[in-house]
Design brief:
The protein has 327 residues and is α+β, with helices and mostly antiparallel strands. 53% of the residues lie in helices and 15% in strands. A five-stranded mixed sheet has the order 1-4-9-6-7. Strands 2-11-5-8-12 form a five-stranded antiparallel sheet.
Length: 327
């Protein structure tokens, strides 16, 4: 007669234990994947007006816990929390009010769950690749390199820029509330493109206003190349890549490339090649060094590749340079 009561008590205690464990567990490490915009809207408790695009006022979303997650779509965040931590990749960053973070599909963002409940602030624009497929925006997406920037390379808006940004979101939201017709996709894509073009303009402004810091990066870049070719790195590892240099300077490849282009008028690859050719010119004037030796010392796998790079930069082959300049 007592057995059912014992089992009942056990079941109740087990339920309470599991409930409390989930409620107060200090850290959740699982990675949440949001493949569709509807899934993300549902998690935030907001209405989905269009399955391929959403404008979210995060302050009106339901309170949530921290999490690490990926998206199967593009997301542009305007973060209005002050001094918030954010983990992107393996790094933790602190960002301030008015920061814009742009994510391409598949990127991991967020911080681990600490059990804290918080109210997000700011705005989010989500749009699926299917929305822009076949549109002008879809064909131009590669121009918006800031979707591959790191969070510490976020765009920091002035108050006027913030108003412009939000005005663009309002236009997109107004179009979402309009009944869907044959022009809906084009108009929504055009409004998103306008917003992204403003982001390009604002990044141009940010590159200009941070010139001193960027000149320091350029100086470090030059020093990095000097050290790379001073030792035997080139012979052992090959030519330094843009990705390698960006990583050594703790920058994303796209941000680094855009920065060098803004500062020098050359791409990062062109800058590296100019450095290589400058060193090669000195080496070619040493009679004991064959052209093949110079090529291998600089990290080229094949002398023919060295010849192509040298001629592209100088207008003459290494052998022609040696004969003309070296006499």
């Amino acid at each position: 007669a007592y057995l059912p009561i014992t089992l009942l008590h056990f079941s109740v205690y087990h339920f309470l234990f599991v409930h409390l464990l989930h409620k107060y567990l200090p850290m959740k490490t699982e990675l949440l994947n949001f493949d569709t915009i509807t899934e993300y809207d549902d998690m935030l408790g907001v209405e989905t007006l269009h399955p391929l695009v959403s404008v979210i006022n995060l302050s009106k979303a339901k309170p949530m816990r921290h999490m690490r997650h990926t998206f199967g779509f593009y997301v542009v965040f305007l973060k209005d929390e002050k001094n918030c931590d954010l983990i992107y990749g393996r790094q933790r960053y602190d960002y301030q009010k008015g920061s814009v973070v742009c994510l391409a599909p598949g990127q991991v963002i967020g911080i681990e769950d600490t059990g804290e409940i918080f109210q997000p602030q700011g705005y989010a624009l989500c749009f699926h690749p299917d929305l822009i497929r076949g549109t002008n925006l879809g064909r131009a997406m590669s121009e918006y390199t800031f979707f591959s920037y790191e969070v510490n390379e976020a765009l920091h808006l002035s108050e006027q820029e913030r108003h412009t940004f939000i005005d663009c979101l309002i236009k997109i939201q107004e179009e979402l509330q309009h009944s869907i017709d044959r022009m809906s996709k084009r108009l929504i894509a055009n409004h998103i493109e306008l917003l992204l073009n403003y982001c390009l303009r604002f990044y141009e402004r940010q590159f200009i206003t941070r010139q001193d810091a960027h000149r320091d990066i350029l100086t470090r870049f030059e020093k990095l190349l000097d050290q790379y070719f001073a030792g035997d790195n080139a012979m052992q590892k090959g030519l330094p890549t843009v990705k390698y240099c960006a990583s050594e300077l703790c920058l994303s490849t796209n941000y680094f490339g855009d920065l060098i282009k803004k500062e020098t008028g050359k791409t990062a690859l062109e800058y590296i090649q100019d450095k290589i050719v400058g060193i090669a010119k000195v080496q070619l004037l040493i009679p004991a060094h064959s052209i093949s030796q110079v090529a291998y010392q600089l990290g080229f796998q094949y002398p023919q590749h060295f010849t192509r790079v040298f001629k592209k930069t100088t207008g003459m082959t290494p052998n022609e340079y040696r004969n003309i300049i070296g006499g």
